[in-house]
Design goal:
Arc Repressor Mutant, subunit A; alpha+beta; about 180 residues; about 10% strand; 6 helices; globular
Length: about 180
């Protein structure tokens, strides 16, 4: 059983989330393996290009492309640094928007540990009390909520109406140039 749909959402055959769904927009930015693993590495403290390439296991061009997209989307920001006697270089740091992905990355880790044969020798604990850190769905009052306890609603009379983007939305990733041949 899924969540409860109400109002204009109730008749599922009359609407589509395609084109306006926040999940769809997020996946356009972070939905690839390299992008998500770059974000994982950023949470682990990785900041330098060569370290992203090595730790994610991608070609430099792939890392550069995904880092550009993540910077354009406002999840990472570039900072210039220079070690003594070396040329100036850039490093990448999490922004507030990037940090907001923490529950997503931890949730994927938690799901992967539970539903795949992967059992990594790493755990996450709260520094303040040493208890395990996990991701759970809850309401603003703090109650844990299961899928069947969620109601989706809309203020629009019809969800086929265009939905204006929020003023604070991240820029769309730049389109990739068409490949020759």
């Amino acid at each position: 059983m899924g969540m409860t749909l109400t109002g204009a959402l109730e008749d599922r055959s009359t609407w589509s989330a395609t084109g306006w769904c926040p999940v769809e927009k997020a996946v356009e930015i972070i939905g690839s393996r390299p992008a998500m693993l770059i974000m994982r590495e950023a949470f682990y403290g990785t900041t330098r290009f060569d370290d992203f390439v090595e730790r994610v296991g991608v070609a430099p061009a792939t890392a550069a492309s995904h880092l550009r997209t993540l910077v354009a989307a406002g999840l990472l920001e570039r900072h210039v640094y220079q070690e003594p006697g070396a040329r100036r270089r850039e490093e990448y740091r999490l922004t507030d928007a990037g940090t907001d992905l923490l529950p997503v990355v931890l949730g994927l880790f938690q799901w992967g540990r539970k539903h795949t044969s992967t059992n990594p020798p790493i755990s996450f604990t709260h520094t303040g009390c040493d208890e395990p850190v996990g991701v759970a769905v809850q309401c603003d009052a703090g109650h844990r909520v299961g899928l069947a306890e969620i109601t989706a609603t809309t203020v629009l009379p019809s969800v086929r109406e265009p939905v204006p983007p929020p003023e604070h939305s991240a820029p769309a990733p730049r389109p990739r140039p068409a490949s020759a041949g």
